[in-house]
Amino acid sequence: MPKKSIVFAMLILSIALMYACSKNDDDAIAGETLVKFTIPSNFPAPAYNFEDNILTNAGFTLGKKLFYDARLSADKSVSCGSCHQQFAAFANLDHKVSHGVNNCQGKRNAPPLFNLVWQKAFFWDGGVKNIETSPLNAITDTCEMGTDIATIIAFLKNTAPYPELFRKAFGTAEINSQLLLKSITQFTAVLVSGNSKYDKVIRNEGAAFTATELAGYNLFKEKCSSCHTEPLFTDFSYRSNGLDLVSNDEGRANITGLSADLGTFRVPTLRNIEYTFPYMHDGRFYSLDEVLEHYNSGVKQAKNLDEKLKGGIALSAAEKEQIKAFLKTLTDNEFIKNTFYSES
């Protein structure tokens, strides 16, 4: 291995070990799995670290309980986990768009929740810049949880076992918005998906692509990777991919106020894409076949269409099957089925 590669690997390992350590390993009850945050060796350094939000078992446990507690919503029917389902890689398998309190339908598809610590902005339009404050959007949106922080704090202060859980997590029985958001982040920030077949091939861990998967990987690198950049399979940019001539959803323009951003949305990750349907910001496509055919023949020549999509992306029937075979190597079953992340 070249000297530079060895140095880089040692750097990544040292970062991983630093982040993996909780503030107090004694937090873990005997026999309990110790919560750790580990950076896959083929991943870059994350944008978020736990320096000001020290990861502990107690903090993670509290955050997970809050994530799955529907009582935090206005009508006690919706939790974060309602729209972010583990079996769908924490996306929303059963609705095209978010489905909130009082059966209210939102306007955008709920994105999957994993590898969030590598993001510098959140949601389809990048409207939130901090992972810790990102839950506020769902909490206050009238078509999601439909409530407010003050109401939630009052509930938590008067509902067992929350006062005790906050004391264990933060050393104080005080419950405030900062600690609430930090605890949820201790759960969501640990949701790392980086152990798919693709990862094992890249890391030389004994796996190998089939001939079809390898052909699909080569096609992907040729036709798709400029936007869906490895290893996170997104470059986090905002683009128009020609879904409509004129978008009904303002997209990124709602944040920037720029007409050039009308109908542009963040490039989504392709990891676990086998399970994160329906696809696109509005959930209009239910299959990878529909998505690939859109790029093959359905791209609308919108005024601000991304330059890379002018003329679409020509794909034969055989090429579509090869790309699909590769995309399925991005499925991380260990992550999706990890009961450590499941509702207790």
Structural class designation? mainly alpha
The spatial strand order of the largest sheet comes to 1-2
User: What is the CATH architecture annotation of the largest domain?
Assistant: Orthogonal Bundle
The top-level CATH class of the largest domain is Mainly Alpha
Helix share, percent? 25-40%
Query: Total number of β-strand segments?
Result: 2
Which residues form runs of ≥5 with pLDDT under 50? 1-30
Helix and strand pattern: HHHHHHHHHEHEHHH
Q: What's the name of the CATH homologous superfamily of the largest domain? A: Cytochrome c-like domain
What gyration radius follows from the Cα positions, in whole Å?
Answer: 21 Å
- CATH fold-level assignment of the largest domain: Cytochrome Bc1 Complex, Chain D, domain 2
Largest sheet, in brief, is:
2 strands, antiparallel
Mean pLDDT: 92
Distance between the termini: 44 Å
- Helical segment tally? 13
Shape: globular
The number of domains is 2
SS strand fraction: under 5%
In short:
It is built from 13 helices and two strands, in the order H-H-H-H-H-H-H-H-H-E-H-E-H-H-H. The protein is mostly helical and 344 residues long. Helix 2 runs antiparallel to helix 6 and helix 9 packs across helix 12.
Helices and strands, with pairings:
Elements: H1 3-20, H2 57-68, H3 80-83, H4 135-140, H5 149-157, H6 162-170, H7 177-188, H8 197-202, H9 211-223, E1 238-239, H10 253-256, E2 265-266, H11 288-298, H12 317-327, H13 333-336
Antiparallel strand pairs: 1-2
